[in-house]
Design a protein that fits this description.
- By secondary structure, the chain is mainly α.
- It has a domain of 88 residues.
- Helix content is 73%, strand content 8%.
- A two-stranded antiparallel sheet has the order 1-2.
- It is elongated and about 105 Å long.
């Protein structure tokens, strides 16, 4: 059984059965190959155009005083701000604050419970007196 090799998106070729090719006529195969060649040429052209625009962008950024470090710092600052205002972050901070407050309250109440004043309220009331 004949095999054909086709290029994948990462530029490698994979082998497969040519049963699909057997269904195409010779003129259809030539037309598809011509379209493929034209499309590949367009891709190369677009890559060159994109590279040129990327270089131009870099030059403009340098003229404006932007450096890679400044851009990175701005991106990190924005990302950190996004994290801080996100619901998850706010909920975690609120949860931590409430937990800390609860722990402090429990410690304080524990201290009050051990105090002599509190113990005097805990004791049995004297007979005949009402609180």
């Amino acid at each position: 059984m004949p095999h054909a090799r086709t290029e994948t998106s990462v530029g490698t070729y994979e082998s497969h059965s040519t049963s699909e090719l057997e269904d195409l006529t010779e003129p259809e195969q030539r037309e598809l190959k011509a379209k493929l060649t034209k499309l590949e040429a367009e891709i190369v052209t677009l890559r060159h155009v994109l590279a040129a625009k990327d270089r131009r962008c870099g030059k403009l950024k340098r003229k404006l005083g932007f450096t890679a470090l400044v851009g990175l710092r701005q991106n990190l600052s924005k990302s950190w701000l996004d994290v801080q205002v996100s619901n998850t972050y706010v909920e975690q901070k609120m949860s931590a604050a409430l937990s800390t407050m609860g722990t402090a309250l429990c410690r304080k109440l524990g201290g009050i419970k051990k105090s002599a004043t509190f113990r005097s309220f805990e004791g049995n009331p004297k007979e005949g007196s009402r609180i």
